[in-house]
Amino acid sequence: MTERTAEMAAVNSKLQREITERLNIEGALREAKGLAEQANLSKTRFLAAASHDLLQPLNAARLFVSALEDRKLAPASRSLVGQTSSALESVEYLLEALMEISKLDAGAVVPELREFPVGDLLRNIKAEFLPVARAEGLELRVSDCGTWVRSDARLLRRVLQNFVSNAIKYTKTGSVSVDWTIRGNVIRLSVTDTGPGIPAEHHAAVFQEFFRLEDGEAHRGMGLGLAIVHRASRMLDHPVHLESKLGVGSTF
Questions:
Q1: 146: which DSSP letter?
Q2: What is the 3-state composition of the chain as percent helix, strand, coil, each rounded to the nearest 5?
Q3: Which domains does the chain have, with CATH numbers?
Q4: What is the pLDDT of residues 141-180, one digit of tens each?
Q5: Which of 3-17, 55-69, 211-225 has the lowest average pLDDT?
Q6: How far is CA 207 from CA 47, 81, 181, 238, in A?
Q7: HEC string of 74-94?
Q8: In the list 39, 125, 135, 230, which could disulfide-bond 207, CB 3.0-4.6 Å?
């Protein structure tokens, strides 16, 4: 009887230690999660404030450049003004993207769900990006669609804009296609390019802010487009998938 009691006491003591250790681990995890959320919130607030404050001097600089563009300048000077204007446009895009990410992270964007025709969205995307694709020597194919969906039209358009913009940016020759398929009551929109493809080990990383593939080419952009896609699609509860093959292309 004494041995039995001692054995049970040992088991109870072991269980208590395990419970205490588990509680300590759970507490540490909660604390780490809280610190991470606090750090992310601080980052979001900083990005929003910095981006907003930098827009004012940027707008002033663009006004100065616009005034120079209206003047008669020597070819060399006009070229420098054009380069300055392009650089300011890149900075403006970066600040706007940072502000958009900040709003999404802060929960300042509330999806407005309603039913709308997918065809309208696709036609708007085609009208916006067809001149851009042609300027790059690419074919842009956008399928028409008569189906209606329930989503946030503005956020869904933002997602497609970033996918198509990225596809055009990284595709040297060939085409970019925007297609759709239906399975049951679910519609799947896809953007396919004939670009260089993305290595499998980078599939998750491409949705992180400031991530850019190092392929030896100087591409425009700051690596924020897919970060915006990731946040917007998660907010809409629209899963995003990536299929890619090196040397063949990618489909989002």
A1: -
A2: 60, 15, 25
A3: 1-108 (1.10.287), 114-251 (3.30.565.10)
A4: 999 999 999 999 999 999 999 999 999 999 999 999 999 9
A5: 211-225
A6: 18, 34, 23, 15
A7: CHHHHHHHHHHHHHHHHHHHH
A8: 230
pLDDT digits (tens, 9 = 90+) for 37-86: 565 566 666 666 666 666 677 777 777 777 777 777 778 777 777 777 77
Q: Which two tokens stand for residue 38?
A: 């606090």
195's CB contacts (< 8 A; 6+ apart) are 167, 170, 171, 172, 174, 249, 250
- Distance between CA atoms of residues 131 and 135, nearest Å: 6
> What is the pTM assigned to this prediction?
0.69
Q: How far apart are CA 2 and CA 103, in angstroms?
A: 66
Pick the closest to residue 252 from 164, 171, 169, 172 (CA basis): 164
In whole angstroms, what separates CA 114 from the centre of its chain?
23
Q: Where do we find the tokens 């999404």? A: 104
CA pair distance 222, 155, nearest whole angstrom: 20
